[in-house]
Amino acid sequence: MAMAATDIERLIKESFPDAVVVIEDLAGDGDHYSARVTSQAFAGKSRVQQHQMVYSALKGQMGGVLHALALETSLPK
Amino acid sequence: MSTSERIQKLIDSNDIVLFMKGVPAAPQCGFSAAVAQILAKLDVPYESVNVLADPFIREGIKEFSNWPTIPQLYVKGEFVGGCDIVREMFQAGELATLLTDKGIKAPAS
Protein backbone atom coordinates (compact mmCIF):
# COMPACT_ATOMS: atom_id res chain seq x y z
CA MET A 1 0.00 0.00 0.00
CA ALA A 2 1.29 3.41 -0.87
CA MET A 3 0.88 6.84 0.64
CA ALA A 4 0.03 10.06 -1.17
CA ALA A 5 2.62 12.84 -1.23
CA THR A 6 0.04 15.24 0.16
CA ASP A 7 -0.46 12.99 3.21
CA ILE A 8 3.26 12.91 3.89
CA GLU A 9 3.44 16.69 3.64
CA ARG A 10 0.40 17.15 5.88
CA LEU A 11 1.81 14.93 8.64
CA ILE A 12 5.16 16.68 8.56
CA LYS A 13 3.56 20.12 8.69
CA GLU A 14 1.38 19.10 11.62
CA SER A 15 4.55 18.59 13.67
CA PHE A 16 6.61 21.37 12.09
CA PRO A 17 4.28 24.25 11.22
CA ASP A 18 7.17 26.37 9.93
CA ALA A 19 8.53 23.64 7.68
CA VAL A 20 9.17 23.97 3.99
CA VAL A 21 8.49 20.51 2.60
CA VAL A 22 9.46 19.45 -0.90
CA ILE A 23 8.34 15.99 -1.92
CA GLU A 24 9.26 14.21 -5.11
CA ASP A 25 7.77 11.01 -6.40
CA LEU A 26 11.00 9.34 -7.47
CA ALA A 27 9.67 6.44 -9.47
CA GLY A 28 6.29 7.87 -10.38
CA ASP A 29 4.63 4.94 -8.62
CA GLY A 30 3.39 6.69 -5.46
CA ASP A 31 5.71 4.46 -3.44
CA HIS A 32 9.22 5.89 -3.72
CA TYR A 33 9.51 9.43 -2.46
CA SER A 34 12.16 11.86 -1.49
CA ALA A 35 11.38 14.59 1.01
CA ARG A 36 13.39 17.71 1.77
CA VAL A 37 12.32 19.26 5.04
CA THR A 38 13.57 22.66 6.13
CA SER A 39 12.63 23.81 9.61
CA GLN A 40 13.95 25.89 12.46
CA ALA A 41 13.02 22.99 14.75
CA PHE A 42 16.18 21.17 13.66
CA ALA A 43 18.46 23.76 15.28
CA GLY A 44 21.06 22.16 17.50
CA LYS A 45 20.06 18.60 16.58
CA SER A 46 22.26 15.95 15.04
CA ARG A 47 21.34 14.45 11.66
CA VAL A 48 20.08 11.30 13.31
CA GLN A 49 17.92 13.34 15.71
CA GLN A 50 16.56 15.46 12.83
CA HIS A 51 15.53 12.38 10.88
CA GLN A 52 14.05 10.80 14.01
CA MET A 53 11.92 13.92 14.49
CA VAL A 54 10.52 13.59 10.98
CA TYR A 55 9.96 9.85 11.40
CA SER A 56 7.99 10.45 14.57
CA ALA A 57 5.93 13.09 12.75
CA LEU A 58 5.05 10.36 10.26
CA LYS A 59 3.50 8.42 13.13
CA GLY A 60 4.89 4.97 12.49
CA GLN A 61 4.24 4.99 8.75
CA MET A 62 7.95 5.04 8.04
CA GLY A 63 9.31 1.55 7.63
CA GLY A 64 5.79 0.27 7.15
CA VAL A 65 3.54 1.85 4.55
CA LEU A 66 6.38 4.13 3.59
CA HIS A 67 9.18 1.80 2.65
CA ALA A 68 11.05 4.21 0.48
CA LEU A 69 11.36 7.76 1.65
CA ALA A 70 14.72 9.36 1.02
CA LEU A 71 14.98 12.08 3.61
CA GLU A 72 17.01 15.26 3.70
CA THR A 73 16.68 17.72 6.56
CA SER A 74 18.10 21.20 6.91
CA LEU A 75 17.80 24.49 8.73
CA PRO A 76 16.43 27.57 6.95
CA LYS A 77 19.28 29.60 5.48
CA MET B 1 20.42 -13.65 25.78
CA SER B 2 17.78 -11.10 24.82
CA THR B 3 17.72 -9.58 21.35
CA SER B 4 18.91 -6.21 22.60
CA GLU B 5 21.80 -7.94 24.41
CA ARG B 6 22.72 -9.72 21.20
CA ILE B 7 22.65 -6.40 19.30
CA GLN B 8 24.71 -4.71 22.00
CA LYS B 9 27.26 -7.51 21.79
CA LEU B 10 27.49 -7.19 18.00
CA ILE B 11 28.16 -3.47 18.10
CA ASP B 12 30.52 -3.78 21.07
CA SER B 13 32.69 -6.44 19.49
CA ASN B 14 33.05 -4.90 16.01
CA ASP B 15 34.34 -1.46 15.04
CA ILE B 16 31.86 -1.13 12.20
CA VAL B 17 28.58 -3.02 11.98
CA LEU B 18 26.10 -2.75 9.15
CA PHE B 19 22.63 -4.13 9.71
CA MET B 20 21.35 -4.77 6.20
CA LYS B 21 19.01 -6.77 4.03
CA GLY B 22 21.07 -9.47 2.36
CA VAL B 23 24.84 -9.71 2.43
CA PRO B 24 27.39 -7.25 1.00
CA ALA B 25 28.02 -9.46 -2.03
CA ALA B 26 24.29 -9.82 -2.66
CA PRO B 27 22.21 -7.06 -1.04
CA GLN B 28 18.47 -7.57 -1.23
CA CYS B 29 17.43 -3.93 -1.10
CA GLY B 30 18.69 -0.85 -2.90
CA PHE B 31 19.28 1.08 0.31
CA SER B 32 21.37 -1.70 1.82
CA ALA B 33 23.27 -1.98 -1.45
CA ALA B 34 24.06 1.73 -1.40
CA VAL B 35 25.57 1.65 2.09
CA ALA B 36 27.55 -1.54 1.38
CA GLN B 37 28.91 0.17 -1.73
CA ILE B 38 30.00 3.23 0.26
CA LEU B 39 31.79 1.07 2.81
CA ALA B 40 33.50 -0.76 -0.05
CA LYS B 41 34.63 2.57 -1.48
CA LEU B 42 36.06 3.55 1.89
CA ASP B 43 37.79 0.18 1.88
CA VAL B 44 37.25 -0.48 5.59
CA PRO B 45 36.58 -3.88 7.09
CA TYR B 46 33.14 -4.26 8.66
CA GLU B 47 30.79 -6.80 10.11
CA SER B 48 27.48 -7.16 8.33
CA VAL B 49 24.32 -8.61 9.82
CA ASN B 50 21.67 -9.91 7.45
CA VAL B 51 18.41 -9.00 9.16
CA LEU B 52 16.43 -11.10 6.70
CA ALA B 53 18.07 -14.18 8.20
CA ASP B 54 17.04 -13.21 11.74
CA PRO B 55 13.52 -11.93 12.39
CA PHE B 56 14.36 -11.06 16.01
CA ILE B 57 17.22 -8.79 14.99
CA ARG B 58 15.13 -7.42 12.12
CA GLU B 59 12.49 -6.08 14.51
CA GLY B 60 14.78 -5.61 17.51
CA ILE B 61 17.24 -3.30 15.80
CA LYS B 62 14.48 -0.83 14.95
CA GLU B 63 13.58 -0.48 18.60
CA PHE B 64 17.20 -0.58 19.73
CA SER B 65 18.16 2.37 17.54
CA ASN B 66 14.79 4.12 17.58
CA TRP B 67 15.06 4.01 13.82
CA PRO B 68 12.31 2.57 11.61
CA THR B 69 14.24 1.34 8.61
CA ILE B 70 17.14 -0.84 7.54
CA PRO B 71 20.07 -0.46 6.76
CA GLN B 72 21.59 0.90 9.94
CA LEU B 73 25.25 1.68 10.42
CA TYR B 74 27.10 1.56 13.73
CA VAL B 75 30.65 2.77 14.25
CA LYS B 76 32.38 1.99 17.55
CA GLY B 77 29.07 1.36 19.21
CA GLU B 78 27.53 4.62 18.01
CA PHE B 79 24.54 4.74 15.69
CA VAL B 80 25.53 6.77 12.64
CA GLY B 81 22.31 6.58 10.65
CA GLY B 82 20.52 4.98 7.74
CA CYS B 83 21.13 5.17 4.02
CA ASP B 84 20.34 8.88 3.53
CA ILE B 85 22.61 10.05 6.34
CA VAL B 86 25.44 7.71 5.39
CA ARG B 87 25.26 8.86 1.78
CA GLU B 88 25.15 12.53 2.74
CA MET B 89 28.09 12.11 5.11
CA PHE B 90 30.09 10.16 2.56
CA GLN B 91 29.58 12.79 -0.13
CA ALA B 92 30.61 15.56 2.27
CA GLY B 93 33.72 13.62 3.30
CA GLU B 94 32.36 13.46 6.85
CA LEU B 95 32.16 9.69 7.00
CA ALA B 96 35.88 9.26 6.29
CA THR B 97 36.57 11.91 8.94
CA LEU B 98 34.36 10.13 11.44
CA LEU B 99 36.20 6.86 10.89
CA THR B 100 39.57 8.55 11.27
CA ASP B 101 38.40 10.33 14.42
CA LYS B 102 37.32 6.99 15.84
CA GLY B 103 40.72 5.54 15.09
CA ILE B 104 39.65 3.31 12.21
CA LYS B 105 42.17 3.17 9.42
CA ALA B 106 40.77 3.48 5.92
CA PRO B 107 43.44 2.26 3.50
CA ALA B 108 41.74 4.21 0.69
CA SER B 109 42.29 7.63 2.24
Write the layout of secondary structure elements.
The complex is a heterodimer of chains A (77) and B (109).
Chain A: H1 5-15, E1 20-25, E2 32-38, H2 47-57, E3 68-74
Parallel strand pairs in A: 2-3
Antiparallel strand pairs in A: 1-2
Chain B: H1 3-12, E1 16-20, E2 22-23, E3 26-27, H2 30-42, E4 47-50, H3 55-65, E5 72-75, E6 78-81, H4 83-91, H5 94-101
Parallel strand pairs in B: 1-4
Antiparallel strand pairs in B: 1-5, 2-3, 5-6
Helix pairs in contact in B: 1-3, 2-4
Organism (chain B): Bradyrhizobium ontarionense
Keywords (chain B): 2Fe-2S, Iron, Iron-sulfur, Metal-binding, Redox-active center
Protein name (chain B): Glutaredoxin
Pick out its properties:
heterodimer; A: 77 residues; alpha+beta; 26% strand; globular; B: 109 residues; Glutaredoxin; 4-stranded mixed β-sheet; BolA/IbaG_stress_morph_reg (chain A); BolA (chain A); BolA-like_sf (chain A); BolA family transcriptional regulator (chain A); Glutaredoxin (chain B)
Task: Report on the architecture of this protein.
The complex is a heterodimer of chains A (77) and B (109). Chain A is of the alpha+beta class and 77 residues long. In chain A, 29% of the residues lie in helices and 26% in strands. Chain A is built from two helices and three strands. Chain A has helices at 5-15, 47-57, and strands at residues 20-25, 32-38, 68-74. Chain A has a three-stranded mixed β-sheet with strand order 1-2-3. In chain A, strand 2, helix 2 and strand 3 form a beta-alpha-beta unit. Chain A starts with a helix and ends with a strand. Chain B is α+β, with helices and mostly antiparallel strands and 109 residues long. Chain B has one domain (3-101): Glutaredoxin. Chain B has five helices and six strands; from the N terminus they run H-E-E-E-H-E-H-E-E-H-H. Chain B has helices at residues 3-12, 30-42, 55-65, 83-91, 94-101; strands at residues 16-20, 22-23, 26-27, 47-50, 72-75, 78-81. In chain B, the strands form two sheets. Chain B has a four-stranded mixed β-sheet with strand order 4-1-5-6, with helices on both faces. In chain B, strands 2-3 form a two-stranded antiparallel sheet. In chain B, strand 2 (22-23) and strand 3 (26-27) form a beta hairpin. The mean pLDDT of chain B is 94. The interface between A and B is medium-sized, with 14 and 15 residues.
